[in-house]
Amino acid sequence: MVNYKVADENLAIQGKEALYIAESKMPVTTKVIRKRFQKEKPLDGITIAGCLHITKETGNLARTLKAGGAEVYLCGSNPLSTQDDVAAALVQEGINVFAWHGNTDEEFYWCIRQCLDAKPNILIDDGADMIVTAHQEYEDLISSGTIIACQEETTTGVKRFRAMDKQGVLKVPLFPVNDARCKNHFDNELGTGQGIVAAIYGMHVLFAGKNVVIAGYGHCSSGMALRARGLGANVIVTEVDPIKALQAKFSGYQVMPIEKALPDADIILTATGCKHVIAPTKEMFDKLKNGVILGNLGHFDIEVPTKELYEYAKEIKPIRSNVEELIFPDGKKIYLLAKGRLANLVLSEGHPAEVMDMSFGLQSLMSEFIVKNKDELKPGMIDVPIEIDDRVGFLKLQSMGVEIDKLTEEQYNYIHGFLEGT
Ligand SMILES: NC(=O)c1ccc[n+]([C@@H]2O[C@H](COP(=O)([O-])OP(=O)(O)OC[C@H]3O[C@@H](n4cnc5c(N)ncnc54)[C@H](O)[C@@H]3O)[C@@H](O)[C@H]2O)c1
Q1: Is residue 218 a contact partner of residue 397, using CB atoms and an 8 Å limit?
Q2: Which atom of ligand 1 is nearest to the CA of 53?
Q3: What are the E-state strand segments in 120-278?
Q4: 220 CA to centre of ligand 1 in angstroms
Q5: Per-residue pLDDT reduced to its tens digit, 224-236
Q6: Rounded to whole angstroms, what are the CA distances from 197 to 224, 282, 297, 310, 422?
Q7: Whether the predicted pLDDT of 203 surpasses 90
Q8: Nearest CA among 160, 149, 155 for reference residue 178
Q9: Is residue 222 pLDDT above 90, yes or no?
Q10: Poorest-confidence range of 6-20, 24-38, 195-209?
């Protein structure tokens, strides 16, 4: 029996098409790994709960885990990122789904609890909400060893778990899959950069000639800066890390504090994982240029002061899907994307399937690794084994028909030795 609550089961046909399109662009996850999983069933008897953006790519991860023998439960990791058609299609494929676009905070946590009630053995999180809830409300799943280990998909989630680990309250083995090279060099850098372009293109806004302020110069934000510059924008970067700021400066961007950047900004995009990158004050709101587009791509909607902007506005008008015009008391208008939530996922379809192939190839192989090594895993942060990271890299290259060199024995000994010098 499949357990579920989705927006509309009738959307399943459309969702199946979306899953099919993504499948063809995810050969590592859907061909190589899924085929082997189908034969070997490495996840037999295992229940996996994923708190992830319910997109066509995540749908294909779920299908691969199911092919490996797992019982799969899914809930959304953001109230606005669920693709309702995909959610409906997954139910028909035997995946237990609790997700719909536009759920309230209360419903969001209800969906998480439905997944935890299934007593999962592996949790795959995106932002840490499910695993933190397990620590707060499902202690028995942890103390009984029902939860074998967990995986985290995004930077914000990894930061929350590192904080828990430091304070000695992380009680499960936690693999920060986000930090694997095959994940953050491609998913965060390429995916977010292209995703925001797709979102803003969808609004028929020209990048060329615009002053685009990018807050942060990390994995996501540096990718966004590069894409915006490639489209002819004048890119200004704001940072708090001196080295990242130097990297931005030497890459040819203007670098300045956000307060100085605001008055001329035509488009402001944040992806820092921080809070209130634009301070929630009237003074800062007054600095915003009339007509500015404000979008956040960081995990939570507090990166830009969403709540305070809504309170300050005297009028809020939806002007197209997921774009609101906020009219300030002085008549100035600003355009807020996706209610301050991940604009690339809400206004567009999130990361292209080609990059999610690597992230979800990793999540699939890590699920198998956890089952195989369950007796050795201890609570705390554990890096994704380099062999698994490399394996996904090789499989991706292979799927693209790209060959690379292999170290000779002589070269291997040289780069791992110290005796050969001048
Ligand atoms: N939208 C998406 O699809 C998507 C994809 C991956 C990650 N994310 C999220 O995006 C955020 C960033 O992830 P990342 O991997 O790029 O992290 P990162 O750590 O690589 O980069 C963040 C950068 O922001 C800078 N920063 C922090 N606070 C700042 C502030 N107040 N002002 C200016 N700069 C500041 C940091 O110094 C760092 O260089 C996280 O919340 C992550 O979970 C979103």
Answers
A1: no
A2: 3
A3: 122-125, 149-152, 173-175, 211-215, 234-238, 254-255, 267-270
A4: 6
A5: 999 999 999 999 9
A6: 8, 29, 12, 25, 50
A7: no
A8: 155
A9: yes
A10: 195-209
Q: Tell me, yes or no, if the pTM score tops 0.90.
A: yes
The pLDDT, as a whole number, for residue 372 is 98
CA nearest neighbour of 319 among 327, 307, 310: 327
The domains located in the chain, with CATH, are 4-183+351-399 (3.40.50.1480), 203-347 (3.40.50.720)
Half-sphere exposure of 350 (CA within 13 A, CB side): 21
Q: Distance between CA 226 and CA 410 in Å, rounded? A: 39
How large is the average pLDDT for residues 192-219?
93
Contact 153, 124 (CB under 8 A): yes
Pocket around ligand 1 at a 6 A CB cut-off: 154-156, 184, 188, 192, 195, 215-221, 238-241, 244, 271-274, 277, 297-299, 342, 344-345
Q: How far is the CA of 217 from the centre of ligand 1 (A)?
A: 8
What's the gap in Å between 382 CA and the centre of ligand 1?
A: 21
Q: Report the b/e string of 256-291 with b at 16+ CB within 10 A.
A: eebeebbeebbbbbbbbbbeebbebeeebbebbeee
